[in-house]
Each structure stands twice: as structure tokens, then as C-alpha cells.
Specification:
The complex is a heterodimer of chains A (116) and B (112). With 116 residues, chain A is mostly beta strands. Helix content of chain A is 0%, strand content 53%. The termini of chain A are far apart. By secondary structure, chain B is mainly beta. Chain B has no helices and eleven strands. In chain B, the strands form two sheets. In chain B, strands 2, 4, 5, 6, 9, 10 and 11 form a seven-stranded mixed sheet that branches. In chain B, a hairpin with a 5-residue loop joins strand 4 and strand 5. Classes of the chains: A mainly beta (116), B mainly beta (112). Chains A and B meet through strand 4, strand 5 and strand 10 of A and strand 4, strand 5, strand 9 and strand 10 of B.
Chain lengths: 116, 112
């Protein structure tokens, strides 16, 4: 099955700096790569996603890049703010069979702390 | 819309007891999922459903059961609670394959 590795496990940056989180996946059939943000005591919430036919996607201060050849994708947060402090999860999924759910395989998470 | 609602938020069980974690969504999504989240381990898929009457095992199904009698509800049953089932459980739903999954707030379960 799919295996997703995520690094680093913790990341501390100063407010205004950039943060980069990297993930690799094992299944070359994976074609959907979402990123989730989880605040303390809450469920994960989608912040951005990318599909395999796109190399990069941007949404204001957040961007995701995908390298299908190398099987890795990254989350970039620019101009970080204290409210960006949370745990971030990458995930990958594939829809190999019609009628099956797209089962997300998650990375182990990155705890991002933005300091003043 | 309330989105995905899970109850209870917290529960302490004794070894061998049983319980049902409730999950309901009001977005008319076909796909629903149950995940467990252990510290430093990400989220692991327990069971999923592609529609009413259809369920299938995920990565870690042992010790759990599910049913999907309606589009809205997807309860998770623990029959004989074990300490290894101490975790935070998340229910999620999505409208289609390969689209955003919406998560509930989670249920923190402790088995002692």
C-alpha cells in the first residue's frame, strides 16, 4: 500500500519567515495530494490540495509543489504569522478502482511553531 | 450546515466494555471514513463507506465494526475495549473520490 513520509516532525520559525514541510510517497499511482492543518483540540482542516496533473498551486501565503518523478511534494508558507502555529499533515490518495473511496494515507505530521 | 458531528467528545472505558462512537453529516456526502490518531503517528484509516449499505476495511480495522444504514450516519462500534484502542477518533466525509475530506471535532477515548 501507499506510504507517506513527512519531515520535519517539528519546525520553529520566527514571525515573517518562511516555512517548508516536505513529504514523499511510495505509490506512483497516487494522484491527489492534500494538506491539512490541525489546531489543538480540533479536527484536521484542508488548507490546500494539488492533483497529479499540476506541478504547483498557490493560495495567498500558501503554496504546494509536486514532483511526480521524484514522488515528493512540499508545502510552503510565506510571511508566517502566529496563527499559522499548528500541526500540518500531508496526505496522498489514489483512485485505482471505480466505486472505491479515495483512501487518504497521511504523513506523521509537522508541528509548526511561529515565534514572535 | 453543521458539517460532520461526532459524539461524545470524551469517554473513558474500562477494559472489556463496549461503546459506539456516533458520526453524522448533513452535507449529503456519499463517502465517509473513520480514522484514529495516535501521538506522532498521523491518522490511520479504520473503516470507510462509499454509500449507504456499503462498508469496507481500512488499514487498522481489528477490534472495530461499522454500519451505514443511511447516508448521514456512520457509527463506529468497539465491542471489547482494549488499552491499545486508547486514541483520538475522527470521522470524515467527502462528496466524491479524490476530493476534500471534512473532519469532525474528534472523540478522545481512554481505555483503562
Amino acid at each position: 500500500g501507499e506510504n507517506v513520509e513527512q519531515h520535519p516532525s517539528t519546525l520553529s520559525v520566527q514571525e515573517g519567515d518562511s516555512a517548508v514541510i516536505k513529504c514523499t510517497y511510495s505509490d506512483s499511482a497516487s494522484n491527489y495530494f492534500p494538506w491539512y492543518k490541525q489546531e489543538l483540540g480540533k479536527g484536521p482542516q484542508l488548507i490546500i490540495d494539488i492533483r497529479s496533473n499540476v506541478g504547483e498551486k498557490k493560495d495567498q501565503r500558501i503554496a504546494v509543489t509536486l514532483n511526480k518523478t521524484a514522488k515528493h511534494f512540499s508545502l510552503h508558507i510565506t510571511e508566517t504569522q502566529p496563527e499559522d502555529s499548528a500541526v500540518y499533515f500531508c496526505a496522498a490518495s489514489t483512485n485505482k478502482h471505480t466505486g472505491t473511496a479515495s483512501k487518504l494515507t497521511f504523513g506523521t505530521g509537522t508541528r509548526l511553531q511561529v515565534t514572535l | 450546515n453543521a458539517g460532520v458531528t461526532q459524539t461524545p467528545k470524551f469517554r473513558i472505558l474500562k477494559i472489556g466494555q463496549s461503546m459506539t462512537l456516533q458520526c453524522t453529516q448533513d452535507m449529503n456526502h456519499n463517502y465517509m471514513y473513520w480514522y484514529r490518531q495516535d501521538p506522532g503517528m498521523g491518522l490511520k484509516l479504520i473503516y470507510y463507506s462509499v454509500g449507504a449499505g456499503i462498508t469496507d476495511k481500512g488499514e487498522v480495522p481489528n477490534g472495530y465494526n461499522v454500519s451505514r444504514s443511511t447516508t448521514e450516519d456512520f457509527p463506529l462500534r468497539l465491542e471489547l475495549a482494549a488499552p491499545s484502542q486508547t486514541s483520538v477518533y475522527f470521522c470524515a466525509s467527502s462528496p466524491n473520490r479524490g476530493t476534500e475530506a471534512f473532519f469532525g471535532q474528534g472523540t478522545r477515548l481512554t481505555v483503562v
